[in-house]
Amino acid sequence: MSLTLQHLPAPGERLAHSVSQKPFDPQAAETLTDAQRKVYLASQTTLMWWKFKRHRLAVISGVVILAIYFMAAIAEFLAPYNYEKRHSDFIRMPPQSVHLFHEGSFVGPFTYGTIYNLNLENLKREYTEDRTTIHKLRFFCEGDSYRFWGLIEGNRHLVCAGEGGTLFLLGTDRLGRDMLSRILIGARISLTIGLIGITISFVLGIVIGGLAGYYGGLFDLVVQRAIEIIQSLPHIPIWLALASIMPPHWSPLVVYFGITVILGLMDWTGLARSVRSKLLSLREEDYVLAAQLMGARTPRIVFRHLVPGFMSHLIASATITIPTMILGETALSFLGLGLRPPITSWGVMLNEAQNINVVALYPWLITPVIPVVLVILAFNFLGDGLRDAADPYH
80-84, 145-149, 180-184, 210-214: lowest mean pLDDT where? Predict the structure, then answer.
């Protein structure tokens, strides 16, 4: 007790303290380290990017998706052949191998010749390599003519078969068409249908869900009951019913846009409910009241002030919803109620592999399943990474 009284200040004397009297400077070296300053001064977008980069699987998936979309954009150049060209002498030919060495000597990329034989016991076409014939591959070569994106005439390809040879890396189908060329061209349809469908779905989900969450009342009640009715319906039968309504005389291009509209109309309900729940909480914030007092109209308040508050959530939802669109188009085309030739997509190609006996004899016909699975997994992993990055402070 004596020690404590000894350190007490005299009456009227100021208490000693260790708090700095200098104004607080967040950038001062004595208050923040370089690493802390970098984090505290970073924007929301920068924090999201830092957290997203730590999700290695999501980053790899994003690179894969960008690479696939880039390949689809220049598919005519990457495809060895015109996707519609028929090679009647090589119907249902198995995938060819590319070799570098011949009899121990380096030759460069080449394929061997092909010997055709019809097995009369099972009527199966059999192809064997002719080791006496070598066809060196050509790069940046002139080959089958095409119309790039249906607009520009061209005949330049990344790689072509050697003179007098063939290059069927993934085999051919029942009409002798190159599977690799058709998968590359079909990727453009199957991937863009997801982007167009998600655009329609997002417009409906944000507008309807935003208005329901902002206004509430009777409008919200009607929207919620409509969403419950739509979600209670089985999607595949509804897809089939809507797809069968389209007249058979419509052009494949019109059918393509019809399929995108169908997929968009069936997939907006989940997003609408998510937007509604967000707006129900955000509409009570002070900045919304300030915007109302300043005379801002409802569309401006919703789309300028409220929607950006959960834009990261919308981005994550988009990456998860796009695979649903791709699977929907693939399922409809596989069942013969979606896209039709001459338009090609992964679903149209899988439609030709419905017969299990054909698949047992020619298993390479189900090769389009591989890019479908790869793209779906990549989008799901990317969506997981974006969803985690959307909350950088967690």
Answer: 210-214
